[in-house]
């Protein structure tokens, strides 16, 4: 299903952070969002996943397929997120980190799903490893597996590969683009890396200085 954003305005009582964003991300497409620091990239993702500061007023609509999601609480939107900081728990194994993202259902089923998710990112050999012993690229793959595990209806990525070297970044990019296409979910990717742009028609550049007084 497609992700549709119609954002008339995102504003604090004093400033407009973003205005006039209209975009449709088709299933299987990674849409890239670029722009200078402070142009509103993270605020845009927060509006989509429902984690905006309560002081920020949202005017517009966000829909996934036929479902309007901007009126739903974060957990009901079923949107996967992957950030620069992978937030893996150090006191749990890789597999336990994934099981934690799947709280309901019989343990045997959850374990099978988690193991399959690790196969998808070629990390099944590390199921019992402690995340602290993994490389940055391996951790990024585990975080990706965890984000996809709950079968999200869309995926949001905020500079998730920026700490990796160029080689690993290219591998992660290929993995993410491949999985997004395979699962036919829409994805929004915030990045500073022009190599992340797959197609120019899938690019939004936030240029305007957003902290205009209201
Ligand atoms: N809750 C808030 N209250 C007031 N101003 C805010 C709030 N949230 C964000 N802003 C301001 O809105 C602007 C956009 O912030 P945002 O973090 O979305 O930008 P960004 O493009 O992601 O920047 P960066 O690339 O530096 O992460 C910034 O000027 C920020 O200070």
Automatic annotation (TrEMBL):
Gene3D superfamilies: P-loop containing nucleotide triphosphate hydrolases (3.40.50.300). Keywords: ATP-binding, Cell membrane, Membrane, Nucleotide-binding, Transport. InterPro entries: AAA+_ATPase, ABC_SmlMolc_Importer, ABC_transporter-like_ATP-bd, ABC_transporter-like_CS, P-loop_NTPase. Pfam families: ABC_tran. SUPFAM superfamilies: P-loop containing nucleoside triphosphate hydrolases. Residues 3-214 form the ABC transporter domain. One of its GO terms (molecular function) is ATP hydrolysis activity. PANTHER family: SPERMIDINE/PUTRESCINE IMPORT ATP-BINDING PROTEIN POTA, SPERMIDINE_PUTRESCINE IMPORT ATP-BINDING PROTEIN POTA. This is ATP-binding cassette domain-containing protein. The lineage of its organism: Bacteria, Pseudomonadati, Pseudomonadota, Betaproteobacteria, Burkholderiales.
């Amino acid at each position: 299903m497609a992700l549709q954003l119609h954002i008339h305005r995102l504003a604090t009582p004093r400033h407009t952070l973003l205005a006039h964003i209209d975009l449709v991300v088709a299933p299987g497409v990674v849409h890239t969002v670029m722009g200078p620091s402070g142009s509103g990239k993270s605020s845009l993702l927060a509006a989509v996943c429902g984690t905006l500061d309560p002081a920020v007023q949202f005017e517009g609509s966000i829909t996934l397929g036929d479902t309007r999601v901007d009126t739903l609480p974060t957990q009901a939107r079923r949107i996967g997120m992957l950030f620069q900081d992978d937030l893996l728990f150090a006191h749990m194994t890789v597999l336990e980190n994934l099981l934690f993202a799947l709280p309901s259902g019989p343990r045997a089923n959850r374990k099978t799903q988690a193991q399959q998710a690790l196969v998808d990112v070629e990390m099944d050999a590390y199921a019992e490893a402690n995340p602290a012993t993994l490389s940055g690229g391996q951790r990024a793959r585990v975080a990706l597996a965890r984000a996809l595990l709950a079968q999200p209806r869309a995926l949001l990525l905020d500079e998730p590969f920026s700490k990796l070297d160029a080689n690993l970044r290219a591998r992660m990019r290929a993995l993410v683009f491949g999985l997004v296409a395979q699962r036919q979910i829409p994805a929004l990717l915030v990045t500073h890396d022009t190599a992340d742009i797959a197609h120019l028609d899938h690019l939004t550049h936030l240029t305007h200085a957003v902290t205009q007084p209201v």
